[in-house]
Amino acid sequence: MQIGRKIYYDLATGNIIQDIGDCSDDVIETTVEQDFAAYASLAERVPETVGCLQLAYREKEQDFEACSGYRVDVSGETPSLLFLYHDPNAPEEPPVYRKPLSEVIAEQDARIADVELALAELFTV
Fold first, then answer.
1. What is the domain extent for residue 32?
2. Quick check: 53 and 16 in contact, CB under 8 A?
3. Is 51 a domain residue?
4. What are φ and ψ of residue 77, in 5° steps?
5. Domain presence at residue 119
6. What is the pLDDT along the chain (125 residues), one digit of tens a residue?
7. Residue 15 maps to a domain
């Protein structure tokens, strides 16, 4: 069995309270109530003030490996992860939270495909 990462966060700020990483092999999926009983960082919180993101197994794995921190964006209708990336070309600049690089790359790939299609249509007319 493979269980994806479960991230508990503060609903007001988006700060991470507890990250239960990916699990595989002989594991049993836990409930939110079981997690609150098992982890001190959750047990000391009022459950109504805590949100939970459940990811698929190894979802955003490269983003987690490349980032120096992450939080949850609670400003929109649907909570989403924001990652902290350091720019190796500008190490003196403070890093900023942004959407996962994997999503940015996918969006750029889609735009490139759209441009290539538009160019192909222009040249075949």
1. 2-100
2. no
3. yes
4. -65, -40
5. no
6. 899 999 999 999 999 999 999 988 888 899 999 999 999 999 999 999 999 999 999 999 999 998 989 999 999 899 999 999 887 788 788 877 888 777 878 788 888 888 888 888 888 76
7. yes
